[in-house]
Specification:
There is one protein chain. Strand 4 and strand 5 form a beta hairpin. The longest helix is centred in the middle third of the chain and has 8 residues. This protein is mainly beta. Helices cover 13% and strands 43% of the residues. It has a single domain, classed as SH3 type barrels (Roll). It has a six-stranded antiparallel beta sheet with strand order 1-6-2-3-4-5. The protein is globular. The protein starts with a strand and ends in a 9-residue tail after the last strand.
Length: 91
Amino acid sequence: MKGRPAEKMLLAAMKPGQLGEVISFLHPETPAIQRLAALGFLPGEKFKLERCRPDYLIRFGYTRLAINRRLAREVLVYMMKVSSASGREVL
């Protein structure tokens, strides 16, 4: 994905279709956050938010992951602006 960080926010504040990059976790010691890390959803990972209701559906690489709102409020991200010549997104 070619892009640049637009703004820092919580994952819970993003809207479906937006692209982001994980910055950090607010409480990395919690078991739920450790499970996210074990699945590869780590700082630096680029992703697309596909859905936010009833749960947040995230796509990164070849992985799709659903998390609840409470967990989405624990993930600090950069919302990315896509700036590719072809207009195609690449994750």
